[in-house]
Amino acid sequence: MFNKQKRPFWQLSFVFAVIIMLVLALSWSNRTESAAQMDASMADMMSNETLGSATIPDLFTVGTMESPEALSGNGEHAGHHDQSGRLYAIHLIATGLLLFTLPVILAGTLFLAIVWPNSSKWRKTN
Amino acid sequence: MKFDFILHWLWALVFSILALSGIAMAGAKYGWVMQYDIATADIVHRLAAVVYVLLTVIIIFYEIIRILRRDKTKKPWLVFGPSGYGLFTFITTLVFIITGAVIWLFMDSNHAATAFTLWIHEKLTYLAAASVIWHIYMKSHALKWPKNKERKAR
């Protein structure tokens, strides 16, 4: 019935199916939070709330749009970032790394976009 | 063990962690993936994202060095390539990194940009996850342990 070459795929699928069943069973046995009330994903909710009234210049303007928390009067979320401790230090290092590597990635991408079409030709001549 | 083989499986591991922690944060519907622990999922996702970005830099540099040295040896396990699934992975990786950086850096200061990039980031996750399943199916012959291959060859 199945292609013999594809047997490892079905074996792997079976392993993942077992893992998913175990996680689901664990999840259902520990239903302390009724979090499944919201069906929409975070991205869909955020785009419904924000993008409906946003214009294209808003995408490139920093700090002009009021956050949904501030608009709803739930302003205490504005100060929820703890600016001390190990977690904040990790956040700073990670952000620094991201800012440093992003231009490197973009430059590398540009280089590969120029060079790859030619390299494919001489690699095929091997 | 070959460098491209190590990079491939490191990449697979980091991508799996990112996909699972990301899907756990995508919405309440998928929160069960990490027992609704969104705070842990957020930290895990951010730390894995840093490793993902560093791996991307390493693979780009590795490919650039190979081209500059005019290296013609085939690297079947290399994550990025000028065509096929390697090119697809490269493009999706760039989109993931750029949209992820916008979400990371502007979450508190530009909600329009965050909402827009978060939407792309999330939808691309589903596409990438589906493509990974297809990729595993197409390359499933490589999942056999080398020992089995050697025994059969004997």
Structural class of chain A: mainly alpha
Question: Low-confidence runs of chain A (pLDDT<50, min 5 residues)?
Answer: none
Number of separate helices of chain B: 5
Whole-number mean pLDDT of chain A: 76
Largest sheet of chain A, described in full?
Answer: none
CATH topology of chain B: Fumarate Reductase Cytochrome B subunit
**Total helical segments of chain A:** 5
What is the total number of structural domains of chain B? 1
Oligomer: heterodimer
Counting helices, strands and paired strands, the structural category of chain B is mainly alpha
Keywords (chain A): Membrane, Transmembrane, Transmembrane helix
Organism (chain B): Paenibacillus durus ATCC 35681
Protein name (chain B): Cytochrome b561 bacterial/Ni-hydrogenase domain-containing protein
Main location (chain B): membrane
Question: What does this 3D model show about the protein?
Answer:
- The complex is a heterodimer of chains A (126) and B (154).
- Chain A is mainly alpha-helical and 126 residues long.
- Chain A has helices spanning 7-28, 42-51, 56-59, 68-71, 86-124.
- The two termini of chain A are 39 Å apart.
- Chain A has one domain.
- Chain B has 154 residues and is mainly alpha-helical.
- Chain B has one domain (1-141): Up-down Bundle (Fumarate Reductase Cytochrome B subunit).
- Chain B has five helices and no strands.
- In chain B, helix 1 packs antiparallel against helix 2.
- The radius of gyration of chain B is 18 Å and the shape is globular.
- In chain B, 29% of the residues are buried.
- Chains A and B meet through helix 1, helix 2 and helix 5 of A and helix 2, helix 3 and helix 4 of B.
